[in-house]
Write a structure and sequence with these properties.
The chain is an alpha+beta fold. It has helices at residues 2-40, 55-59, 114-124, 185-194, 228-249; strands spanning 46-52, 62-74, 80-93, 100-102, 106-113, 132-135, 140-144, 147-148, 151-152, 155-164, 168-178, 181-182, 199-200, 209-216, 219-225.
Amino acid sequence: MKRGFKILLAAVLIMGVVGCGENIIQRKIEKSLAASLPETIGPADKYTVKASGSSMKMIQGRLNTLDITGANVKFACGINAAKLIVNISDIAFDTNTKQITRVGATKYMLAISQAELSRYIAAKLPDIPDLKIELQNGLVSISARPGIYRLRMGVLASAAIEVIQKRILALDLKTLKVAGINTPTFVRELVDSKLDTIFDANDLGFNAIIESATITPGALTLTGELDLIKLAQKASGANREKAKTKGRDD
């Protein structure tokens, strides 16, 4: 009994040490990657990273999966995402430089608030005064007051959103009224041409593509894929540039 108990106790202790080792390695990888995300993706209120895989794989520079969540992420293109989720599988990284060298599938989900989308589109189309966007179930409601000098006319429109070539978000006008009156075809075509591209995935960088766009009250949600190697190369280039600048300053 005593011998059996000792063997059992030794096994439990070994498992405990290995488990702690896995947690330490995992936390170190998560912390290191989270610290690099403001450079690779953009500043955010908070990033959380969750890595999975055995401790042996992690030591060798491999992960089964990596889940990244960002809150209020500020992209270089000028748009802010209320939430960003990135799911990555089959990752390999250089254990010395901490740079990712290979990935499998990289999926993302991007949630943009109504207020942010309205601000972003209005900034892109400054020639349309008082342009505002409201997101409803499956439809975008658009209002503006274009005109000449002090003569302004209220414009109201509704549109569905469509994804073109897995890259461009465009609005497909369903209704359009100016000062409460249904507009002729040439006016519809003029407005339609202004709003033919409200967002381009190329602006995100990283060879991002859009697979779906969903409108719910107050939010636009995009899903798709991106190229994490491009993302890692961007971070590496930024770090080298910082090192050169620091060297010149010194």
